[in-house]
Amino acid sequence: MSGFTDVRFSAGTELFKAGDAATTLFVLKSGQIDLIDQTSGKIFAHLGPGESFGEQAVLAGGVRSATAVAKTDCECMELTAAGLNVILNAESPLSNYVFKALHLQLFMQNALKQIR
């Protein structure tokens, strides 16, 4: 995919930490990633191949709300916030609205998971 860079992480590597500036998002190609809640320190998501992470903070232009740690050796596709903007700006205005609506839905689903 255009704009993506392949990156590899060893098991135990911290990809980003809660509170870090959100400058990249990832799509997991192989391996497993754990997402850890900033407040409780508990793992709230186990991610596998095909799943994305880090996109919420990038889209919001903010900071990370969770810490991502490689549970196993893994390979990801990484996309910078600038690269994402290039991709989104190349699409029709309608697709941007749909993408933002999906982002809001994902944000709400994740918030509900943390409440449970």
Structural features, described:
The protein has one domain (5-115): Jelly Rolls, CATH 2.60.120. The protein contains 3 helices and 8 strands. It is of the alpha+beta class. It has helices at residues 55-60, 81-90, 93-115; strands spanning 5-9, 14-16, 24-30, 33-37, 43-47, 52-53, 66-70, 74-80. Strands 1-8-3-6 form a 4-stranded antiparallel β-sheet. A 4-stranded antiparallel β-sheet has the order 2-7-4-5, with no helix packed on it. It starts with a strand and ends with a helix.
| H/E element sequence | EEEEEEHEEHH
Oligomer status: single chain
The averaged pLDDT comes out at 84
Note the beta-strand portion.
25-35%
The CATH architecture assignment turns out to be: Sandwich
CATH topology: Jelly Rolls
User: Can you tell me the CATH superfamily?
Assistant: Jelly Rolls
Q: What's the end-to-end separation, in Å?
A: 36 Å
> Which spans of ≥5 residues are poorly predicted at pLDDT below 50?
none
CA radius of gyration: 14 Å
Number of domains in the coordinates?
1
Count every helix, treating DSSP H or I runs of 4 or more residues as helices: 3
CATH class identity: Mainly Beta
Strand line-up across the major sheet: 1-8-3-6
* Main pleated-sheet profile: 4 strands, antiparallel
Kindly summarize this structure in a few lines:
This protein is of the alpha+beta class and about 120 residues long. The protein has helices at about 55-60, 80-90, 95-115, and strands at about 5-10, 15, 25-30, 35, 45, 50-55, 65-70, 75-80. The protein has a single domain (about 5-115), classed as Jelly Rolls (Sandwich).
